[in-house]
Amino acid sequence: MSEIRWDWDFLIHRHLSGEELTEEQRRALNDRLRKFPRLRKRLAEMAFEQVQFRDIRGVSEPVPILILGPDAQEPATAPLLKPAAAVRRPWILPAVAAAACLALIVGLIVWTSGAPAEPFKVVSGDVKAEGSRVEVSGPTPAFVRMSDGSEAELAPASSANFRGRVGDARQVVELNQGSGRFKVAKAPESFRIDTPSGRVSVLGTEFTVELRKQKKGPAALAVSVASGRVRVEAGGQTRELGPGESRVFGVEPPPEKKEPRPVFSGVVQGSVQGKGDAHVLLSVTRVVSAKKETPAELVASIPGRTLKVSVAYAKRKDGDPQPDKIQFLFVRKLEIDQEITLDVRQIKGDDFVIGALDEAQAQWAVPKEEPREDKPPKKKTRDPEKGPERGNKKEDK
Amino acid sequence: MREETLVKNLLQYKRTLEGMLFAMVGDAAVAEDLFQEMAVLMTRKREQADENCKFVAWGRQIAINLVRDWRKKLARGKVQTLDDDVLEAVAGAFEASAESAWDARREALRLCSDKLPEKDRLLLRRRYEESVPVEQLAAELSVSRGALDTSLYRLRRALHDCVELRLQQPGMS
Predict the structure, then answer these.
(1) Out of A87-91, B94-98, B123-127, which region has the weakest mean confidence (pLDDT)?
(2) Smallest Cβ distance to B90: which of A44, A50, A52?
């Protein structure tokens, strides 16, 4: 039999595309990778290249920044810039739509100019300025120039604190609410934007910051970088992002998937100790058989226990779940101290339901073709001439 | 290892380590998340690491453990392409090449991708930069999923071959 000649590059491509290989392909690829360092190198190179694509093809246009305080309402006006259609990943896509209505935008582009003498100066626009705090009160954006030459264009209803130099940062802007478009002067020291959900330090030039509301807790901070580098500190994490990278910080963790609790499922033998309308108390003497997924410890714990075994309920298309009629009749017929074997399934603790009755049990519960003297009376045949019964009732009255 | 050394190394070797994780898991988004976990772990354990330790070798150990943990958490029955023992060998391939070789490859890739026709560049961008699923992209381009997958494969192989050629040129490697 001739050996299949695989296209190893294609198998690697499929692996790196997240595609499942057939078992035959998978085995062949693994064997080949074990034996040939050259193919391992090839896989490494192709993986490396794919990781690089994001940077290599990174956009060069200025990218807007979105900042929104978690307590901020929808922006009073439309965003200054529409977010650029760049660097979208599936894991941030759902949030992008939600963020659209919350969007407040800040654009960062390389800019240099002479520095004014004051820490900051409102160049134009109606604002309420108190100390370092600036609130835009007018219907048009306000322009603020900072001491390092950077500029901010704050949207209506925005508020920010221009802190000037703080520690190692040449400029710190606390954006509390609203939006702004920033032109950041290039300088060796960092330019920082503090938001209630995190801190973004500009080490390079172009990046996007967005605060996304979550169901619980503070807004998540989404950052994506077009070029240069930024450092993000949020939720106890510090991370530097480079060109083409994006990351959401402080995202609510997905609800933990609970491992299904192991339950007993199998056939037990025991005697009836008590009865209710739709359940029986069964004192188990032994486990006849257990389904393979039932852990051994659980099987061993069943004998000696008195289980409350109820009639199973079946869901119905047209309404509420109804008890299984045959099981119901079976339970009714059982007598105290009667020895039975029963297929049961654990719900919780000592609460069980009947799994399935075997044919003999079902036949015992509802004998077929058994001549019965207490047959229900035959349905009355209606006299067509009398009309509907309701009418008759009325007539009776 | 001092904090600044760790940050410097993480920046320098980020793409190599992320590529290593990606080669093992075959999912770029997962690789990115695992790299983030790796950086957190390294930050926690930096004091145990020597200032001059082989950073990629240290990262490789952490990467393998992270990938194994991730695989354990996956839904049961989900078949992983690479067997456990192959993971180590694949991760080792990243360590075998010098960082300068990866840098040269990156530069060659940039030059080669610049030479691509606009439609191919757009395809690469949509698929690998914007991570648009193949199905969605196929629908956008009105081609079958298989045809698109084949195009992507050919494109990647052509790029890879171009990179190899460039690396053989003097001054590239």
Answers:
(1) A87-91
(2) A44
Domain formed by B100-168, architecture: Orthogonal Bundle (1.10)
ipTM of the complex: 0.90
Chain B residues lying within 8 Å of A36, measured CB to CB: none
Minimal-distance CA residue of chain A relative to B122:
A57
Helix residue ranges, H only, A190-238: none
The verdict on a CB contact (< 8 Å) between B121 and A87 is no
Contacts of B159 in chain A (CB under 8 A): 49
Contact list, A88 vs chain B (CB under 8 Å): 130-131
- Indicate the pTM of the whole model: 0.43
A197-206 pLDDT tens trace = 677 777 545 5
Q: Is A83 an 8 Å CB contact of chain B?
A: no
Domains and CATH numbers, chain A: 8-56 (no CATH), 64-249 (2.60.120.1440), 265-365 (2.40.50)
Of A56, A239, A247, the CB nearest to B113: A56
**Could you give the 3-state DSSP secondary structure of residue A241?**
strand
Q: What ranges do the domains of chain B cover?
A: 3-96, 100-168
Q: Using one digit for the tens of pLDDT, what is the confidence trace for A334-348?
A: 988 899 999 999 888
Cβ contacts of A223-229, under 8 Å, gap ≥ 24:
A223/A247, A223/A248, A223/A249, A224/A63, A224/A86, A224/A87, A225/A87, A226/A58, A226/A59, A226/A60, A226/A61, A226/A62, A226/A63, A226/A84, A226/A86, A226/A87, A227/A58, A227/A60, A228/A202, A228/A203, A228/A204, A229/A203, A229/A204
**Is CATH 1.10.1740 the right assignment for the domain spanning B3-96?**
yes
